[in-house]
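fold-stage: in
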Amino acid sequence: MLDKVKKAIIHDWYAQYRGGERCVASITDIWSDFDYYTLVNTMDKEGCDKVFKGKQPYTSFIEKLPFGKKKYRSYLPFFPLAIEQFDLSDYDLIISSSSCVAKGVLTRQDQLHISYVHSPVRYAWDLYFQYLKESGFNKGLKGLIARYFLHKLRIWDVITANRPDFYIANSKYVAGRIKKVYNKEAKVIYPPVETNMFDISDETQDYYVTCSSLVPYKKVDIIVQAFREIGEKLIVIGDGPEYKKISKIKSKNTELVGYLDSESKIEILKKAKAFIFAADEDFGISPIEAQACGVPVIAYAKGGVLETVKGFFASEKVEISDRTGIYYKEQTVESLLEAIRFFKTIQQSFNKKSIRKHAESFSKERFEQEFKDTIEELYAQSKNDK
């Protein structure tokens, strides 16, 4: 239906081949004739090949500024201006993949703009005070400047809420924030997870695992501190700005393995006793990947994980064999330790095949069919309305 429709897809930035980039790649597996727009592209060749299918993306003036590729986040005050400089007037259909400013791109009344929102700008809204504190911007002149620009970003973000014709959210949790911030309804389509890449192991070894980019809001430090106290083996997969901090606070029973390729990561995931998750995440792909290996998840009970893990609290009496993990109530070391100790008493009751089956409901194939049907329906509806 949309094969002859001229299409563009605009994503905030491409830094690594992660959740948002995987969504774009999956969308362009549905229709391969997109033109690509983004503020900055620093992905490696493998990521570029998966997303852009041999094309070159159009990038903004941010990329041409001093250190624009390496330190593009420093130019945050210019992001709204930069996104509005893209001329998309030749396209009939524009899809924005947005966790920052992509949804604010300029379009005409006769164009259809659908925004797939990973989150409203978290450091300007719900993570505002946490961001200021963790970035060292909660006081002084730098703090005053940061607060001013984030204030301006919030104003721009609300002003541009009417620019998309339709919103799609990556979880019910994000749909709730879209309603809160923009007062807009959003259809929920969960992101694609390549569950076919993962498999169940007959062997379960004596360790726990977490996999995450090492940034403050992921709260990997809470996990590492908990394992200092409990003495169980923990493997931490991932890299990021907090790597040195985590290295300093870890104990001998915690192993930091850094970034791993998919094959190595899967080999560790599928033999773990459980996957540990401490973040308040919009959706969270890693817990689903763990479940695709038949591994139960111990998760902080907030955010997208409430939609992706069939968990329960220690105080609940449930049939464990059809559950995929357990929840803990507070984002603290003590609450996590309580959950781990409870898990050790019931871990044999989890069913690997049942956990794996649940993960398959978030597959890439499911996303592509659901997304295709939704976009075609919205496009047909827009033509009938005009």
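fold-stage: in (second)
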Amino acid sequence: MILASLLMVARIWDAAPHNAFTDLIRYRGEWVCAFREGSRHVSPDGAIRVITSRDGKQWSSAARLSLPALDLRDPKLTVTPRGELMLTTAAADRPKEPVSHQSMVWFSRDARQWSEPVKAGELNFWLWRVQWHKGLAYSVGYGTTNRDTDFARLYRSADGRTFEPWVPRLFTEGYPNETSMLFEQDGTARMLLRRDRGTMTGQWGTSRPPYKEWAWQDLGVRIGGPHMLQIPGGRVIGVVRLYDGKQRTSIVEINPATGKLTELEKLPSNGDSSYAGLVWEKGELWISYYSSHEDKTAIYLARWKP
């Protein structure tokens, strides 16, 4: 039997009082990591820091994105069919909360110079993460105002700038919010979805083209900050925050057929943590995440070999 191994964990950034909500991508020979920095977990001064590295060991700041009087949160990275680096985030207008969240996108070709931000999707529907498939961008947006918008929508875009509702009411029970999607080689779409009301158990969604109809299975456990990918051989590996017992960020495996979630390895973490970026690189899973298990909330990089 070949056992999985946590190869390394290192703190790679902690310059701000609070550093959190990461994503990670490999782009043009560099590692690119994006995250929010601010004075607190929720504060009106949130900005997006982008850092880069050639080797995953030495990191330097490439850009800082901010908008006056707006809290920028939870950046997500992807590459468009045109080869542009695309960053998605949400701008929260703290004095007007809970009635003003606007998803924003930026584009870059070097992770250093970024376009002007573009408003994406509908006001008060937070586009969480963008996934490209056959030239189209898919993203789940969840309502941020009140129980009248206590549901999630699936959006679709041809250019990464204009997002239209594709499934207006994707999931409606238990305050669905954060998600991660993947597309298998045969076109099957999978979705990992967080919920924060009722039983608060996560959901496992499956759909076939054109992704209008979804079947759901209950994970039976509460999850936070979900992200996942499919590695060679077909295994679906994710990183989530788990709440049973001591809160922690863990590497998990999801059975695509049954939705069963199995914890594989706990990352050094506790409490305020998770929100991972995932990249499969040369037989290893590279993971960016944040945690507050040491002296402050900081950004970490882990490498794990299944």
